[in-house]
Design goal:
698 residues, alpha/beta, four-stranded mixed sheet, four-stranded antiparallel sheet, 9% strand, elongated, transmembrane, Flagellar biosynthesis protein FlhA, FHIPEP_4
């Protein structure tokens, strides 16, 4: 029972991640609470063991990133050692008069065994250790850390571009590219952290010198003035304890500084240090034989220690002999016959239909600076908005928008994006991924500082601002959107404009499947009455004129009824528009009670009707492409944008009413000259509509 409760308690502690809080509390306890000599022995021993373990891990690791926690560990160990110095200083100053064992066995051992009980020797040894640690190891490691951090950060863009290049070339997939980017970022963070961690080691060395001086002066004063010891006795007693304390702390510090230097100086191929020394230092027997010869010459020089030099001569000869017996891999011979065979025409891979790349209906390519917009670690804001665009367009238009493929493209500028329709680049834009777009509203209460630019989707004047300026921009009357929303808005516009091209033959099958689920017999009769090719022209024409296909039952009923009279796709489209006239008016006018519109001037209308009659007498002609006087076209090109802007300025949707015979032609010119101008025929206005004619197009 007790064991189970203990196990439950330990499990709760493990889940609570209490290790770090306990460590911090222990550090505070060493500063604030007096420690017994036994506890000091345990802590000094733990400090030495930890330093040895860290050094061994640094020596045996294969890559610096394998020990990425080292900077944090270095900070923790340095802090623990400094607090231990504080605790040991308290014990030395309080109980140093009692004898050499007053501060524990570890300090006594370093004071007696290591330095032989001579405070002068101890002081010299301590100073030498400090010089080695501070001047040699720490200073060199600090410089290497600074250079490594700077070079790593400078190489970061090149590494990112290399990853993007491999990804676009198909050498790696998205997951591998994401893993490589994470590793590159982790490497930059590691060397930056090592640059800062080297300052800990340097500060630790300086602190060790200062603690030594303070302890010596303080101990002598306490021994003489408080405990009445003579000067020589007090000096020897406290100096021995202080130096033993300093050595017990500085040896782990030297080990950790050495571990830090080993980590930052590694240029590894994936092996540990021992293997690299064996393969690189002892690789060539000729070098070892030469070294043995030099040692032998020195050994026979009169006055030299012959035995020592001869021993190392023999050792080098033995190492060279063993290395010469190692079987070296034979040099690879080039098999030219195999190369020629591989390059022969018979060995070339066969070209098939599967080797031809497929054309994506709609795609979005991003420069490498915009890749963060689809990073799952940051929430993939662009992917979420593109998914929303696809859903909204599909719901409003009644057809399923194809999946939008998002890819990286290193050929683009870093902040550019490109939209492709059926493999053809249709639109190009450039945004600032780290900024927000401020769009001026109808009423502004001031101007905001930023980068002046043009909206890539609609060509409006906008301002790119920093994220912290968002609240100010909103207060001044600007509309603020993020970079992902800007790109998604542009994709939405291009997708709607090119929806007729994206609607293909197979989409009719899916559309009629929806019809069959609502009216099975109607779907069957429509399929028998009209061919898919004719239906494709009708559906595309409706989408071109921004008529939704959601009400497929009404559309199918109208087409089936009208197909008995005509097979002309323009006339069939006109019949469908008449059947959907209320939905079309609602899409244009919204919830407004009154409908305002322009009409054609009588003279202009008669000229166009005369041109239509003349073309029909000459032969069968399409209603949207009969010959028109070029002067009339110029007139329409000049006046259509004018009435569009006039109605928009008055807060009314731009609308032009014409006769049914002229509507296909005028609608075609409207899409060319004024894309936002809606062109309706008179019979497409419901009888109960509150219509107001506000002007004429002359």
């Amino acid at each position: 029972m007790a064991n189970s409760k203990l196990q439950q308690t330990l499990a709760i502690l493990r889940k609570g991640h209490v290790g770090v809080p306990i460590l911090l509390l222990s550090v505070l306890a060493m500063i604030m609470l007096p420690l017994s000599p036994l506890m000091l022995d345990i802590l000094f021993t733990f400090n030495i063991v930890l330093a040895v373990v860290v050094l061994l891990v640094a020596v045996n690791m294969q890559r610096p990133l394998d020990f990425a926690v080292f900077p944090t560990l270095l900070l923790i160990t340095t802090l623990m050692r400094l607090t231990l110095n504080v605790a040991s200083t308290r014990v030395v100053l309080l109980h140093g008069h009692e004898g050499e064992g007053a501060a524990g066995k570890v300090i006594e051992a370093f004071g007696q065994v290591v330095i032989g009980g001579d405070f002068v020797v101890g002081f010299v040894v301590f100073i030498i250790l400090m010089i080695i640690n501070f001047v040699v190891v720490t200073k060199g490691a600090e410089r290497i850390s600074e250079v490594s951090a700077r070079f790593t950060l400078d190489a970061l863009p090149g590494k990112q571009m290399a990853i993007d290049s491999d990804l676009n070339a198909g050498l790696i997939n998205q997951n591998q590219a994401r893993e490589r980017r994470r590793e590159v970022s982790k490497e930059a963070d590691f060397y930056g952290a090592m640059d800062g961690a080297s300052k800990f080691v340097r500060g630790d060395a300086i602190a060790g010198i200062m603690v030594l001086v303070i302890n010596v002066i303080g101990g002598i004063c306490i021994g003489i003035f408080k405990y009445g010891l003579d000067a020589s006795h007090a000096f020897q007693q406290y100096v021995l304890l202080t130096i033993g304390d300093g050595l017990a702390a500085q040896i782990p510090s030297l080990l950790l500084a050495t571990a830090a230097a080993i980590i930052v100086t590694r240029v590894s191929d994936g092996d540990n240090v021992s293997d690299e020394i064996k393969t690189q230092l002892l690789a060539k027997p000729q070098v070892l034989y030469t070294g043995a010869f030099v040692m032998f010459i020195l050994a026979i020089v009169p006055g030299m220690p012959h035995i020592a030099f001869l021993c190392f001569t023999a050792l080098l000869l033995f190492a060279a002999w063993r290395q010469s017996k190692v079987v070296q891999p034979a040099a690879e011979e080039t098999d030219y016959d195999a190369i020629n065979e591989a390059l022969s025409t018979d060995a070339m891979p066969a070209i098939s239909w599967e080797s031809i790349p497929l054309v994506e209906p709609i795609g979005l390519n991003l420069g490498y600076k915009l890749v963060t917009l689809i990073d799952s670690a940051k929430g993939s804001p662009l992917s979420q908005r593109i998914r929303g665009v696809r859903q909204v367009v599909s719901e409003q238009c009644g057809v399923l928008l194809p999946e939008i493929r998002i890819r990286e493209n290193f050929r683009l500028k870093p902040a550019q994006y490109a939209i492709y329709i059926n493999g053809i680049r249709t639109a190009l834009g450039e945004v600032y991924a780290e900024k927000l777009m401020a769009i001026p509203g109808a009423e502004l209460y001031g101007e905001i500082d930023g980068v002046l630019d043009t909206d890539p989707a609609y060509g409006m004047a906008i301002v790119w601002i920093d994220a912290e300026q968002k609240a100010k921009a909103l207060n001044l009357g600007y509309q603020v959107v993020d970079c992902a929303s800007v790109v998604a808005t542009h994709v939405n516009k291009i997708a709607r404009e090119n929806l007729p091209e994206l609607f293909n033959y197979d989409d009719i099958t899916h559309l009629h499947a929806r019809l069959a689920s609502q009216a099975p017999k109607l779907a069957e009769d429509l399929t028998n009455a009209l061919s898919f090719s004719l239906l494709l022209r009708i559906y595309r024409q409706l989408l071109l004129e921004q008529v939704s296909l959601k009400d497929i039952v009404t559309i199918a009923s109208t087409l089936l009824e009208s197909s008995a009279v005509t097979k002309d796709p323009i006339l069939l489209t006109a019949d469908v528009r008449y059947a959907l006239r209320r939905a079309i008016i609602h899409a244009i006018n919204g919830d407004r009670q009154k409908l305002a519109a322009y009409t054609l001037d009588n003279a202009l209308e008669n000229i166009l009707l005369g041109a239509l009659n003349q073309s029909q007498q000459a032969g069968k002609v399409a209603l949207d492409s009969f010959a028109v006087d070029p002067n009339i076209l110029t007139q329409l090109q000049n006046t259509m944008p004018v009435i569009q802007e006039q109605m928009k300025a008055k807060g009314m949707p731009p609308l032009l009413l014409v006769t049914p015979q002229l509507r296909p032609l005028i609608a075609r010119y409207g899409r060319l000259f004024a894309s936002n101008l809606h062109v309706l025929s008179y019979n497409e206005v419901p009888d109960d509509a509150d219509l107001t004619i506000v002007g004429t197009l002359a």
